[in-house]
Design brief:
The complex is a heterodimer of chains A (about 220) and B (about 280). Chain A is mostly helical. Chain A has helices at about 1-25, 45-50, 80-85, 105-110, 115-120, 125-130, 150-155, 180-185, 185-220. Among the domains of chain A are: about 85-170, no CATH class; about 175-220. In chain B, about 70% of the residues lie in helices and about 5% in strands. Chain B starts with a strand and ends in a 7-residue tail after the last helix. Chain B is mainly α and about 280 residues long. The chains are: A mainly alpha (about 220), B mainly alpha (about 280). The interface between A and B is large, with 42 and 40 residues.
């Protein structure tokens, strides 16, 4: 009887301890935690810590489509109804209508936009400038990215004193020698070709020139 | 056996300018490459030499400021060297580095000589490729300085120019740096070290003088002009003290190895970054 009572007390103590452990430690989660909601992407956590998208993990099944080897499928099929979601520079939600949007990451589609200085050097993530969901189109009237207020709403967050002129800096600049640059940023395009011709021209002249000098002097010395 | 005679080619100030340019150029190469390649393992390692990405940028900016100061001082020095009462001859004369008609003639004669179709050109004090070396730096430095200053002070720049001029400035800064680095580490080093006439090292830029025999072969018109004008002043004896020779040989080869290392790694790692 006495033993039983003591056991009972010990069991109670263990029970209370276990309960407090469950109550005080965070709930267990699996390592591959998914981000289901595009609207609440750890927004509070990100804002409080300053680390953006560090803890975002892709779903296990990355590609919802059945792949055909060697064929790259786009997210839009080529039909008249899907054409209207391809023109999206003035939408309130620029990603409106994209299939499986909340299972995608920005760089799935915008790969070129991840290669500029702001991303590779300043280590910025997309959302630090483009904001949370829904991301308005660049030219939407109320968009923070609209050129009429971009300098104040976006650039000036880091670059104190940014002016409208300053905000015409092209963050996602096209590859300097590309046809895209010729259409959208011709001065960069011609600067690229000027420097390339200068570089290639200088080396194409002086490397053979130096080698020929070397060869000629070599044979002169041998004689 | 007669002792070798030497004639003066570079003043002490010329050599100081060159040495200053060497040091600053090399520092700008490391710090600039470490920034350009910062997305790669190699670029990160380079930046650790200067205490990380931010410090590397700081060093790059301050050494850039030193180079601008050097450029201004050098330009002021050039202005003192111009004989204003004899302007034409002082700018286009044989002691000037400004290209003139003879350079094109010499280039053509030299191309013929490469293929055994003529005698080598009778070069004056500065050959056309030495003039090219000089002016490559003299136009490259202001370009790098202006675009660099634009990038350091983007807000001030955007007050004068549209903001997209910063895209152009950053591109030009990088392209000109690639041009300068590849020219110096390939062509300039080959001319200075590897070609048979100067192998293992062209010592003129460190000792200030050249061997008279050598100068008669390389720059016959120069020696002839000095003789005609009665200005041929020769110095007897060896080029420099042995310790100084050892010093600049070690330094010169360290620089060559460093340059080749930077160039090869730059080519290898350029695949992993968006260069333009």
């Amino acid at each position: 009887m006495r033993m039983n009572n003591r056991n009972c007390g010990v069991l109670h103590l263990i029970g209370i301890l276990l309960l407090s452990v469950f109550l005080m430690t965070p709930e267990p989660v699996s390592a591959q935690e998914e981000v289901a909601s595009a609207i609440r992407r750890y927004k509070e956590y990100e804002a409080s810590t300053g680390y953006y998208e560090e803890y975002e993990v892709l779903p296990r099944r990355q590609q919802p489509f059945v792949d055909i080897v060697g064929v790259k499928r786009n997210i839009f099929s080529y039909s008249s109804s899907s054409a209207q979601v391809r023109v999206r520079t003035r939408l309130a939600d620029s990603h409106w209508g994209i299939k499986f949007y909340n299972r995608r990451r920005c760089e799935d589609c915008h790969i070129r936009e991840t290669h500029d200085f702001h991303t590779t050097r300043a280590n910025l993530t997309c959302r630090q400038c483009h904001g949370g969901e829904p991301i308005a189109s660049i030219n939407h009237y109320f968009s923070p990215m609209n050129p009429i207020r971009r300098h104040a709403y976006v650039c000036a967050k880091c670059h104190e004193g940014a002016s409208a002129s300053y905000a015409t800096y092209i963050v996602h600049e096209p590859p300097a020698g590309s046809t895209l640059a010729r259409e959208t940023f011709p001065i960069l395009y011609y600067a690229y070709w000027f420097m390339l011709v200068l570089l290639v021209g200088t080396l194409a002249f002086f490397i053979p020139h130096s080698l020929l000098v070397g060869l000629r002097e070599l044979f002169k010395n041998k004689r | 056996m007669p002792t070798p005679m030497r004639i003066k080619r570079f003043s002490l100030l010329d050599r100081v300018f060159h040495f200053f340019l060497m040091l600053t150029f090399l520092i700008q190469t490391v710090t600039g490459f470490s920034r350009t390649f910062n997305a790669t393992v190699w670029g990160k390692k380079l930046s650790y030499l200067f205490g990380g990405y931010e410090n590397t940028f700081l060093v790059h900016k301050w050494v850039g400021a030193l180079m601008i100061a050097g450029f201004l001082i050098h330009t002021a020095y050039l202005l003192t060297r111009i004989q204003w009462h004899n302007l034409g001859k002082s700018i286009f004369g044989p002691d000037s580095l400004v290209p003139n008609f003879h350079d094109f003639k010499h280039l053509w004669q030299r191309i013929l000589w490469f293929f055994g179709m003529g005698s080598p050109p009778k070069l004056e004090r500065w050959s056309y490729w030495e003039k090219f070396d000089y002016f490559a730096v003299y136009w490259g430095l202001p370009l790098l300085a202006i675009t660099g200053l634009m990038a350091i002070y983007p807000l001030a720049t955007s007050r004068i120019l549209p903001g997209w001029s910063l895209n152009i400035a950053v591109f030009l800064h990088r392209a000109e740096a690639v041009l300068a680095v590849s020219y110096i580490f390939v062509v300039h080093f080959f001319i200075g070290h590897l070609r048979p006439a100067s192998f293992p090292m062209n010592e003129a830029m460190f000792t200030g003088s050249v061997d008279l025999e050598e100068a008669m072969h390389e720059k016959p018109a120069w020696v002839q002009r000095l003789k005609d004008e009665g200005k041929l002043e020769t110095v007897e004896g060896p080029s420099s003290a042995p310790w100084f020779r050892v010093l600049y040989f070690v330094f010169g080869y360290a620089v060559v190895i460093f340059g080749v290392y930077m160039l090869i790694n730059g080519i290898i790692y350029s695949r992993y970054i968006a260069l333009h």
